[in-house]
Design goal:
Sulfurtransferase TusA family protein, globular, TusA-like_sf, Translation Initiation Factor IF3, TusA-like
């Protein structure tokens, strides 16, 4: 999967990963993919719900040690 932008939200606590994700998404065109790296365990539920409510598609979620990685396709 081609990633158009990577957002480093490691070390940020809720709600900052969502705030930063929203800002980064605003810079992308529809169909582009944003990859988010976060360490806040709450980000899994938050970003999944945020993507769905915003009309975006969560393409992939994985854990790499302490880092949660998400790929969200802009709707």
């Amino acid at each position: 999967m081609k990633v158009d932008k990577v957002l480093d939200a490691k070390g940020l606590a809720c709600p900052m990963p969502i705030v930063k994700t929203k800002q980064a998404m605003n810079e992308l065109e529809s169909g582009q993919v944003l990859e988010i790296h976060a360490t806040d365990k709450g980000a899994k539920n938050d970003l999944t719900a945020w993507a769905k409510s915003g009309g975006h598609e969560l393409l992939e979620y994985m854990e790499d040690g302490d880092v949660l990685k998400f790929q969200i396709k802009k709707g």
